[in-house]
Amino acid sequence: MSQLxxxxxxxxxxxxxxxxxxxxxxxxxxxxxxxxxxxxxDPAIFPVSEFYEATAILRDSGRDVLQYGTTEGYGPLKDxxxxxxxxxxxxxxxxxxxxxxSGSTQVVDLLNWAIVDKGDVIIVEEPSFMGSTxxxxxxxxxxxTISCDAEGMEVHLLPEKIEALQKAGRKVKYxxxxxxxxxxxxxxxxxxxxxALLDVAYRYxxxxxxxxxxxxxxxxxxxxxxxxxxxEKGMVIYxxxxxxxxxxxTRLGWCAGPAELIRKMAIFKQGVDVCSCVVSQALVYxxxxxxxxxxxxxxxxxxxxxxxxxxEEAFKRHLPLDxxxxxxxxxxxxxxxxxxxxxxxxxxxxxxxxxxxxxxxxTFFVGQGGHHNCRLCxxxxxxxxxxxxxxxxxSAMRELL
Amino acid sequence: MSQLxxxxxxxxxxxxxxxxxxxxxxxxxxxxxxxxxxxxxDPAIFPVSEFYEATAILRDSGRDVLQYGTTEGYGPLKDxxxxxxxxxxxxxxxxxxxxxxSGSTQVVDLLNWAIVDKGDVIIVEEPSFMGSTxxxxxxxxxxxTISCDAEGMEVHLLPEKIEALQKAGRKVKYxxxxxxxxxxxxxxxxxxxxxALLDVAYRYxxxxxxxxxxxxxxxxxxxxxxxxxxxEKGMVIYxxxxxxxxxxxTRLGWCAGPAELIRKMAIFKQGVDVCSCVVSQALVYxxxxxxxxxxxxxxxxxxxxxxxxxxEEAFKRHLPLDxxxxxxxxxxxxxxxxxxxxxxxxxxxxxxxxxxxxxxxxTFFVGQGGHHNCRLCxxxxxxxxxxxxxxxxxSAMRELL
Lengths: 401, 401
What we know:
Two copies of one chain form a homodimer. The first copy, chain A, is α/β, with parallel strands linked by helices. Chain A folds into two domains: 2-46 and 295-399, Aspartate Aminotransferase, domain 1 (Alpha-Beta Complex), CATH 3.90.1150.10; 55-289, Aspartate Aminotransferase, domain 2. Chain A is 44% helix and 14% strand. In chain A, the strands form three sheets. An eight-stranded mixed sheet of chain A has the order 2-9-8-7-6-3-4-5, with helices on both faces. Chain A has a three-stranded antiparallel sheet with strand order 10-13-12, covered by helices on one side. In chain A, strand 3, helix 11 and strand 4 (142-149) form a beta-alpha-beta unit. In chain A, helix 10 runs parallel beside helix 11 (130-138), helix 10 crosses helix 15 and helix 17 (292-318) runs parallel beside helix 19. Chain A is globular. Chain A starts with a helix and ends with a helix. At the A-B interface, helix 1, helix 2, helix 5, helix 7 and helix 10 of A face helix 1, helix 2, helix 5, helix 7 and helix 10 of B.
């Protein structure tokens, strides 16, 4: 029947590529492998007993929780989020500005349903999170890319690119920006650039999707104001997730935005999964209500600060320092290494041989680039594994120099 | 900013209509309203304590369950389903033939991603489940419709329609069929027609999506073989869900199909929600492993048989029998009434005034029709409410005759 299916597959299916990281899982799971690949939290600090405590809600409100939920999200969880996110959002979100989603990946999917037609342009940082660009690609979007430096997206490059696109009759639908502890770069957009980015949005009438899964996981320095809180014209859609601040297995995220857009996204959500898992929403709500979210955050930060520091030290100890460059991240999950003299695909193979897994940088590019870069996640491995993994990686690098 | 968003919305967003049933919720929730509208299970029989028992898995395997899951689904749940569904599937499904989804609505979404391009044709029963047709519509599909009678889809009408479409150069991508206890019609496709439908699929090279959320909920007579089990050529994608046999709040469904198609669907799933809720998958697995699924099914069937019978009796007691026609369903959730002399929108308004909620039949039509029909769900209301609701509905009908 192979021939039959080949003739039936959609254009998107013909063009689709699996996520290289998801596909790497069988390599990563080899015995003895140290993984810096997937952006996974450390299961050792999952709040298992606190989350288990929250199951009381399944016993006490089982009849509600086991029924269909409203598409917009479980009311008590929305109320909690509205209050809890207020410091970051600059105000309490109204009910109609907030949508609970099945992970923050679904925010991208629903936004694309709501505003992207085939051939529309989305402006993305280059490199960017491939889970998001994969979804944009599936929706038929074309990409315009903006490079980043240590201060985040190079916002000053936007006007010229946008004007050229608009002159060519292209519809630019939104700018996708990972503002804090960028995936894969680790960098954070400065306040000046945040303001400049909003100015661009206002000037050209192009909204911004602010993707902020890592924002709460800051090790050093002060939190910067979100684009959403700086925005005075309702041009920012803010996406966040419980994956990094609680646990990815809950598969819950949320987004905030103008009510009329949230409404459209919710209608599309009716057609993709009706509502997010009510059981999970109720458990997460009860966990939050008992104060565990607030209490867990400093633990995550302390735990991952140690790991970030362990990786920094291990790099200094084991990598060929003249041939590798990086910027120490102030939060989040990732280091981004630059190896000007080393091809990353060769490095990847040598590293796998030595039982350490990294993600080649080009994985995160929609265009060309990243062939001398790799992303390393420090949250999953133990400090001892981080040291040993860096030693193996350094050895793999030296073989290629 | 309204103008801005109006200029940004996608073509699909411009054309999208919210699910009338989801939108009806505020009406249905009025105090004193008896609802025959939403296709909701009765929360009174949710297996709350058995499901709560299953939470032990969150305590004992918390670190696994709270982590990201594989896109294809939680392994133990897939293994369980492969064995448990074998009698219905005709054999044990292989791992690569089975995909766990975020409700069975997501099966339709992922299948559309995998095989439907804008302008392709999907053949649907008319009327059909609007959650599915909404998703198909969003993907830009065009519809060809096939009418149904008491024996299900009128399969003999297919060849002429398909040949005309193929002659016109249209790509017919699949046939969507709710084989058992159709939503909204309540009818079941006969064995003869199942075989004839497969013949059509083979003859024209058009696969079938067999949507079977109600199949296990049979009150009378014997289970009929699924299309999937009758299929010898890998042309059937089978979709099912835990929503009606356990609880919709788990938001879990699954599908079975040819490995190469399942693989494509899983890659699209990476881009829409990464994986289905692992917490929910683990809870459902543990619930099933403890034998509760098997034990709960006869309870559901007994409970809903009583309600179906209560509605049958109440109709006979309260409706103007000369002016209303129906077929008693052998399973599932729904009655479909025909009222040749009554416009259903007028009936809907009168019924709401009398505090009983129904769904107008035209809601389920992608084309014209259903203006003298309505769908009534008997699973949600109590037998007393069913009697009183039918009395109110009969009174509303008489006002319009």
